[in-house]
């Protein structure tokens, strides 16, 4: 029985009629890669680099970051890896950075906004990433992007550092987690190599619900049709420029969410390793045409509850 389960976990997320979606894991540490692969991951769709900065007194220097990124690449042995640049701010505070107090940190200087203001954080991280890139495939992704200007500036920094180090080209992508980016996806797609949709933040910003609010967070349901429509806009905008779209927020690890996202046309789902078996089972039991129909119905619902009710009807 264990052998049977292990064999099932290794099967691809392919529908009965042959539509395949990549399944990746959200993994922050090289030591956790083996576990993710055993769970059935085909690569890592999100490495959150914040973990390197948390629970310590000083920032990791370029050498330490390089060693960790390189270890991650080596643990993956040629499989895909998306490393996300530092996403500090919002809910992730780091005392030793002495960042000014903000009344609304989720709407403040977080993610790429912080990186662009702090060369002392951006430079060592980009140098470490480009040095690591010599050891195997990886992509770099920037969090909390809001505007094309940010993308242009970050790409310029990346290219300058790449040339300084004589490093290989690396695909450069952005998180889609601010509604402005989802609605402008057709324009931004001309300037990025890929998108990865962060449904956790996209939901909190679309619904104006703090994702950690003690009373309201339960209502921040990523299956809300408003969120699904933003995802559809993202996929449509990306498709016009043949840009690859992954999803690395919590919705990707929910079997119904994964089914709808596949119907909406995303290429990859990246999730916590423990969610992989159920998502694969859900997609392998389906046909692509039922998923397309499910996505169409979900976009036409009035509420997240109505979207959830579709699971009962779906064959
Ligand atoms: C997200 O916002 O969906 C996401 C994947 O990033 P994080 O949860 O780290 O903010
Ligand atoms: Mg996020």
Automatic annotation (TrEMBL):
Keywords: Cytoplasm, Kinase, Magnesium, Metal-binding, Phosphoprotein, Phosphotransferase system, Pyruvate, Sugar transport, Transferase, Transport. One of its GO terms (molecular function) is kinase activity. One of its GO terms (biological process) is phosphoenolpyruvate-dependent sugar phosphotransferase system. Coiled coil: none annotated. It comes from the Bacteria. GO terms for cellular component: cytoplasm. It is found in: Cytoplasm. Belongs to the PEP-utilizing enzyme family. This is phosphoenolpyruvate--protein phosphotransferase. The chain holds residues 519 to 833 of 833 of the full protein.
